[in-house]
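README, section 4: Worked example with a bound small molecule

Sections 1 through 3 covered apo chains. Here we extend the same pipeline to holo records, where the ligand is supplied as SMILES alongside the sequence. The molecule in this example is deoxyuridine-5'-triphosphate. Nothing else about the input changes; the structure line simply encodes the ligand pose together with the chain.
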Amino acid sequence: MFDSGAAVAAALEAAGADLDDAQRQPNGVDLTVDAVFQQTEPGRLGRDGKRVGQRQELEPRGDCYRLERGSYVVRYGEPVRIPEERIGFVLPRSTLLRNACTLDTAVWDAGYEGVGEGRLDVGHPIEIEPGARIAQLVLAEADHEGTYDGAYQEENL
Ligand SMILES: O=c1ccn([C@H]2C[C@H](O)[C@@H](COP(=O)(O)OP(=O)(O)OP(=O)(O)O)O2)c(=O)[nH]1
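The generated complex, written as C-alpha cells:
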C-alpha cells in the first residue's frame, strides 16, 4: 500500500521541506533540483567501505542549466525524512522521459534523513531551471529491521 500524496507531503514538511502547491501530487510529492554536478574522478565501492569521487558543481547559464548528453549527479531541493514502517522511491517526472532523459535512483530507507542525490542521465540536450520539479517521491508501507544509520544520514542538511 502506498501513502497518499498528502501523507508524503506531511512527512516532508515534518522534515522541514517548504512545499508549494505544484509539488503536491495525488500519489506523492515532486522534488526539485537544487544543484547539478559533473563527476571529475573515480569513486570506489570496496568490500569494506566506499568513496564518492570528487565532482564539480555546474553553474546555470542564464536562467537554466544547459546540459549536453551525459551523466550528471543532481542534488534535490527538499529535506526528506523517511518515516518508520515506510520505504521511499523516487521516480523521474515523465516530462524528463519524454525528452529522452531520466533519473536513476535507489532505495530510500526507513529512518533516512537528509537531502538526497540521484543520477541524471541526459540522452538528448536539455534545459533545466534551478528549482524546477524533476522527480517524484512516493512512500510505501514496509516492514524493516532497524532504521538507516549509514554514511549519508543527515547529508546536505
Ligand atoms: O536514489 C537515491 C536513493 C537513496 N538515497 C538516500 C536514501 C538512502 O536511505 C540513502 C542510502 O542509500 P543506500 O543504502 O542505497 O546507499 P549505500 O551506498 O548502500 O550506502 P550505505 O552503505 O550508507 O547504506 O541515500 C538517495 O539520496 N538517492
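What to look for in the output: The domain at 5-40+57-141 is CATH 2.70.40.10 (Deoxyuridine 5'-Triphosphate Nucleotidohydrolase; Chain A). Residues 110 and 145 are 9 Å apart (CA to CA).

Section 5 describes how to batch many such records.
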